From TrEMBL:
EC numbers: 1.2.4.1
Example GO BP: branched-chain amino acid catabolic process
Keyword Secreted: no
Species for this entry: Streptomyces olivoverticillatus
Protein name listed in UniProt: Pyruvate dehydrogenase E1 component alpha subunit
Ranges of biased composition (kind: Basic residues): 7-18
Pfam assignment, any one: E1_dh
Native organism taxonomy: Bacteria, Bacillati, Actinomycetota, Actinomycetes, Kitasatosporales
Length: 378
C-alpha cells in the first residue's frame, strides 16, 4: 500500500461523506454500507483494483483467523480470546496506512494490525495458550507486544514518540485503545504529554460501543474524538466499518505527525459483533436488534459489494480467497495444537543478572516439588 496517497481533494458540489443523524456528529465516510463510493471534502484516496482486492483479502483472512481462534478457545486449546469480529476495517485500514519504520502499540485485540505488520498469526496465540508472554520480537516488525493493562500502551507510545522526535527520525507512532480505555487516567496523561511535547503520535480509538458491558454514552458526555480539543490537538471521527475512509484518515494523520505537526486523535466508530472476550456473554447487556443493525454495515460485505459492482473482482477471486482462508485456518489449528509447553524452571531465569541466593533457593524448592509428582506416579 506504499503507493497509495491520501490527499486533500478539491471541493465538490456533490454531497460528501456520511449523513449524520439528528444531534450526531458527521463522520468521514468514503464507502457507504451499500458499497457506493462517495467523496469527502477533507479526505480522499485513490486505489487501484488490485489494492482494493488486497484490502478485502486482508479483512477476510483476518476474520477467518479470528474465528478459528475463538473456536480453538471453545475447544479448550486457548485459555482466552478477544475477538475483533466487526472491527476488521478499522484495523486493516489503519494498519495498511503505516510505514515499515512507524511503530505500533496495540492492545490485545489488534490481530488485523498485526497481520498488516507482518506478524505471523500463529505467534499471537502463544500468550492466550499460556506458553509464552508474547511470541514475537517487537522490534522485528515495529509492533509492540500485546498490552493487557487497559490504556497503559498510550503512555508507552507517547514516550516512544517523544524519543523519535528527539532523534529526528522521519517516522510516526500509533497507539490503539478502545472506548473503555479512553476513560483511563493513563490515556489522559498520554494526551497531555503528547500535546505539550508535540509528539509524532496518532491515538487510534476503536469505539466499538461497549466497554465490556458499559455503553459509550455512560462514559462520556461528548463524542470521543472531541476530547482532543481540550488537549490542544485535532480529533476526527471516521466510519470504522469503511476500510477506505479509515485508510485515508489514518494515512493523513500519520503524515501530519511525521511532518512535525504533533498528535491527532482518530475515533473509529465501529461495533464489536461478538463478545468482549470468550469469558463474556453479551446477550446479558445488549439487544439482538442492535447487533442486527450493525450487521447491515458489515465492513467486509460493503467492500465486496463495491468490488462486484465495479467489476474489480470475479467469482474466481472469491473462490480462491475462500480456499486460502481454509488453508490459513488449518495452519493455525495445527500450530496451536503442537505448541511446546514452556520449561517449568524458566520462570527463575533473567530475574537477576548475576543470580541471587533467594531465587536459587526457590528454584531448588520448586524443582523438588515438581519431582514429587513423578515419585508419586511410580
Amino acid at each position: 500500500m506504499d503507493s497509495t496517497a491520501a490527499r486533500k481533494p478539491r471541493r465538490s458540489s456533490k454531497r460528501a461523506g456520511a449523513k449524520k443523524a439528528a444531534g450526531e456528529p458527521e463522520l468521514v465516510q468514503l464507502l457507504t454500507p451499500e458499497g457506493d463510493r462517495v467523496e469527502h471534502p477533507d479526505y480522499s484516496i485513490d486505489l487501484s483494483p488490485e489494492e482494493l482486492r488486497g484490502l478485502y483479502r486482508d479483512m477476510v483472512l483476518t476474520r477467518r483467523f479470528d474465528g478459528e481462534a475463538t473456536t480453538l478457545q471453545r475447544q479448550g486449546e486457548l485459555g482466552l480470546w478477544a475477538s475483533l469480529l466487526g472491527q476488521e476495517a478499522a484495523q486493516i485500514g489503519s494498519g495498511r496506512a503505516t510505514r515499515d519504520d512507524d511503530y505500533v502499540f496495540p492492545t490485545y485485540r489488534e490481530h488485523g494490525v498485526a497481520w498488516c505488520r507482518g506478524v505471523d498469526p500463529t505467534n499471537l496465540l502463544g500468550m492466550f495458550r499460556g506458553v509464552n508472554h508474547g511470541g514475537w520480537d517487537p522490534n522485528e516488525n515495529n509492533f509492540h507486544l500485546y498490552t493487557i493493562v487497559i490504556g497503559s500502551q498510550a503512555l508507552h507510545a507517547t514516550g516512544y514518540a517523544m524519543g523519535v522526535a528527539k532523534d529526528g527520525a522521519d517516522s510516526a507512532v500509533i497507539a490503539y485503545f478502545g472506548d473503555g480505555a479512553s476513560s483511563q487516567g493513563d490515556v489522559a496523561e498520554a494526551f497531555t504529554f503528547a500535546a505539550v511535547y508535540n509528539a509524532p503520535v496518532v491515538f487510534f480509538c476503536q469505539n466499538n460501543q461497549w466497554a465490556i458491558s458499559e455503553p459509550t454514552e455512560r462514559q462520556t458526555r461528548v463524542p470521543l474524538y472531541q476530547r482532543a480539543q481540550g488537549y490542544g490537538f485535532p480529533g476526527v471521527r471516521v466510519d470504522g466499518n469503511d476500510v477506505l475512509a479509515v485508510l485515508a484518515v489514518t494515512k493523513a494523520a500519520l503524515e501530519r505527525a511525521r511532518s512535525g505537526e504533533g498528535p491527532m486523535l482518530i475515533e473509529a466508530f465501529t461495533y464489536r459483533m461478538g463478545a468482549h472476550t470468550t469469558s463474556d456473554d453479551p446477550t446479558k447487556y445488549r439487544r439482538d436488534e442492535e447487533r442486527e443493525l450493525w450487521e447491515a454495515k458489515d465492513p467486509i460485505l460493503r467492500l465486496r459489494a463495491h468490488l462486484e459492482r465495479e467489476g474489480h473482482a470475479d467469482e474466481a477471486f472469491f473462490t480462491a480467497l475462500e480456499e486460502e482462508a481454509d488453508a490459513l485456518a488449518k495452519r493455525v489449528r495445527d500450530a496451536v495444537r503442537t505448541m511446546p509447553d514452556p520449561d517449568d524452571m524458566a520462570i527463575f531465569d533473567n530475574i537477576y543478572a548475576d543470580g541471587h541466593a533467594l531465587v536459587d533457593e526457590e528454584r531448588a524448592q520448586f524443582a523438588a516439588y515438581q519431582a514429587s509428582f513423578a515419585e508419586e506416579s511410580n
